[in-house]
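Retro notes, item 3 of 5
We never archived the inputs for the zinc ion complex last cycle. Fixing that now. Sequence and ligand:
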Amino acid sequence: MLTSELTMDLIDTHAHLFWESYQNDLDQVIQRSLEAGITEVINVGVDVNLSKVAANLTSDKIKFYSTIGIHPHEAIKYLSDESIHIDIAILEEIYRLNPQKVIAVGECGLDYLFNKDYNGHNSYKDYREKQKKLFQAQIDLAKKLNLPLLVHCRDDRSRNPSSSEAWDENLEMIKNHYGILHCYSGLMATTKKAIDSNFLISFAGNITYPKNEYLKETVKMLPLEKIALETDCPFLAPQSIRGQRNEPSSVKEVAQTVAEIKGISVEDVAEQTTKNVEKILRLRSG
Ligand SMILES: [Zn+2]
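Structure as it came back at the time:
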């Protein structure tokens, strides 16, 4: 048992270890991650400042990468196109200062679930348009720097359970690029399109939740070559520690869930998903 655990090589493709909640025990968090077979962690930026913090986060025990990105919820801050372009230029600068460490643009995308506060926008529609502008600017940056995209996307299914606008519009916007669809939640018609895209489909702890049967069906129909694993920590703790702070060691539980759904070994899941991610993100290439 111990030997097989030690041979596993898992990547957490989406973590936020710079979050305040890790301030006091990051060393232990990293130690538990290593014990669970996680050898690489990608710390994902959600705004300009945290992209900088992510790029500066170091560990001598585990391999850290980071990303530069502005989360769609941040769209409320940008009241002019110029203000978007100023921040995109800062993201580019963060990349140029850390070209070995910064390996993708994101998390960026469309999030139509957040509709409480439009902060100066005239309507929900306006706000969605602003999200698209912010996203497009980051797609353009990814193309300019030839970096993969790490995409965040969410539909509002509270009013309409079959809503897939955000995912469908998102796939249309990124169709000429490549990267990872983080915390995938598209419905089956969207999944069929996502399979044909140049993006890996990444699953987090929410595939372990009993209510998310449809995501288990998605995992079942996807080829293993199309799958990536993540935690989105400190968020989205898997079922076994639900409600608590999440951490990269939980990637193992996500891998085990994928293995159970597919009826294969967790080692096979680890090996193939790690290969998928290293290829698309060009890790260890330089
Ligand atoms: Zn995230």
